[in-house]
Every structure is written in C-alpha cells, then in structure tokens.
Amino acid sequence: MPIDTPRFDAEGTSIRAVIPTPRGGYLAMTGFPGLLTEVDGTPYLDPLQMTETLEGLRNVGARQLLVLTEEAELPEGAFPSIKVISQRVGLGVYFSEIIDFHVPGDAFLSEWPAYRTRFERALDAGETVALSCQYGAGRSGLVAAWLLMGAGLPAAKAIALVRNHFSEAIENQLQEDWLLEQEKG
Question: Residue 152 above 50 pLDDT?
C-alpha cells in the first residue's frame, strides 16, 4: 500500500482495497458491508460488521457508496439495512446493479453518466468513492478500473493498478475484455 493511501481495517471490515487515483482522490472497493456466511454456507447480515465497514469507508474519506449488487443475491433486508446505517454514519448510498461475474448492462449504462459526473467531482475534491459488490472484487474492481480510465489511465494500467491493490479484482476475462473495449471507444 502506498504511503499516502488511507489505512483501513482489513480484518474487521469488508474493505478490500483503497486505491489512489490520478485525480487526487481514492477508490475504495468493498464486499457488501455486513455480509457474512454461516459454516454451512448460509449468508447472513451482521449489523455490527456493516456499521464497522461503513464507518471504515467514512474514515478513509468516502462520502458516497455505489452498491453494484443485485438485491436478490443478498439476505432479506440487506438494502433497507444499508440505507439506514449509511445515513447514520454520513455516507450517501446509491444502487445500480451489475449481474455477478458480468459487465454493465443497459440499465447500468443509462444511469452511469450521472454517477460518473458525481464520482469524478468527488475524486477531484480529494474524496474517496466507495464501490461495493458481493465480495468486493469483480464488479467493484471493474468499475474502479473504469473510473481510473476516465481519469486518464490506459485500460491495461488501470487493470494492473486495481489488481496491484487487490489481486482478486476484475474476476474474469469477460470483465477484462470489456474494459479493453471501452478504451477503444
């Protein structure tokens, strides 16, 4: 982790990486706050861990969080819970889903210009923009790399930077190829 990158608790939160951007701000990638798994594989929400993760995001300078997860892939009540706790810790939360292991679809792409403008302004102001998917690697890494490309990095360098901070990021060839295609226009 570069010396100027804000420190975060990787053990007590689901924050996977905090990445410096050429714009001056940071991108934080996180698994869905509070999402844990029982020994038998059953997912559940832990409100304390959700709070700790959201507070951790605020502590690294985030004021906004984009949740990329589909509501149906999470335990019942996940979206209402994150809305309440995010508000309590002073973090704006937005939802725009991408199917797990996929790339942005039409609905996401139609919403993206407004999000991109909002996030680029935050990065220019030195803030951290937080991105969350189920685990904090695939969709979060894809959008992080895409924002880095918007800040002027070539696709290959953006992908490498994201993976340098979290090696599991951008989970598959489909996501990597999509980013390389975005660079071509």
Answer: yes
